Amino acid sequence: MAANIAAPRSLGDYSLVGPYSRVAVEEGLADARWYLSPVPKEQMRALLERRDGPAIRDTLIWFGLLIGFAAAGIALWGTLWAVFPFLLYAVIYGSSSDSRWHEAGHGAAFKTDWMNNALYEIASFMVMRESVVWRWSHARHHSDTIIVGRDAEIALQRPLSLGKLIGKFFAWPGAYFYFKGLLRHVAGRMSPEERTFIPESEFGKVYTRARIYLLIYLAVIVTAIATRSIIPLLLIGLPNFYGSWLMVTYGLTQHAGLLENVLDHRLNTRTVYMNPINRYLYWNMGYHIEHHMFPMVPYHNLPKLHALVKGDMPPPYNGLRAAYREIIPTLRQVLRDPNYYLVRPLPASARPSDAPHQAEVISSDAAPDAQGWVEALDLARLVPGDSVRFDHRGKTYAIYRSAVGQLFASDGLCTHGKTHLADGLLQGACIECPKHNGRFELRDGSVRRPPPRIPLKTYPVREKAGKVFLNVSTAEVSDEPVA
Ligand code: FES
Predict the structure, then answer these.
(1) Could you tell me if the CB of 412 is within 6 A of ligand 1?
(2) Share of the chain above pLDDT 90, in %
């Protein structure tokens, strides 16, 4: 077992406003720095690059399958043969919408933002997740993965109930909480838990989406009544109850039975090799440790990322069957003993959980000149499109050189969490944070894409005689050590 594993607690209180929420903060588990496997900077930059092509192809196939199965079911209506296309339609609708929701929500599926947003909204509705609520809950899930009292998306809560576990395969009790939340939002109210992870400025969007969802459901019901046919309900709504079993089958492999309250995804997450059909339906989310460590790497690049980091991770499971050979006995044990956790040892080749992030850091303690300028690095070390972390006298900065050669500088840490922006993706004059893909405009530090809400502090930077100089005269140095 790795050295920094916090003691597990499983007292059945997963509330985000309960005692363990406070305990998580006190123990430094909230918004903490997580272990990251080393990946060479150039290779990470290449992996982060977005493309539209793979997701357009996969999405067209996906819509094609939905339309094809629906058309076949309608054409065969009145015969027993109609059952098969409708069952297949339900699996595509109720299960594979989960991974589309997920990847588009991270903004990493497509290069083009509106495509991510459009797919995200469609898939959110299909998978019965209110799009705005889940965008924020998922950001929290990535900040505080399986941290009790912080993570709103812990699928298997202890003590485990066999009835609830089986019910999950039929969208139960998820559908109950979904419709309860939907009606609350239609009425313009938020729960105390939701208020812990959704900023108030987003409440209006939550209510609007909820009312749109409700109108869609009402329109489907009215159409079914008017046409005296169940087909509209077989196309929208009902498929979740008999088509989401595959999503649960995939989803349980992610974290089920593993440790809570640790800051190393290798200890609370699984990577499972899958066959090409499952990889397509699940959009490569079987590479789940890799996804959690580097959530901005698009799904189509996860196999390449896996090849780079697999020596630093527990061995992957060779298929779903292999994963369930471990998960089923583990869950049996958890049913008997809620304090049972499966601890997967790290291989001898792996770095320990408390090993520092191996990033390129340029540091200097040189005194700034009278105007606040300090020499940071040789310009040649900063190729166009690149960024670098620069630590100066206890404070961390990020210095960027755009593809067209413009220099920018900012505080080194994202204003949303303790993530180094120099590890992010520079797009024009925008830096995208590698944690939740928040974006900042580097000309003025303004937020271009949530979840950050606080602007980024920027600094004057200039090049002179092949050297990059940063002006730190307006920097505020905190007492917190740079890590
Ligand atoms: S840490 Fe969340 S967007 Fe940067």
Answers:
(1) no
(2) 92
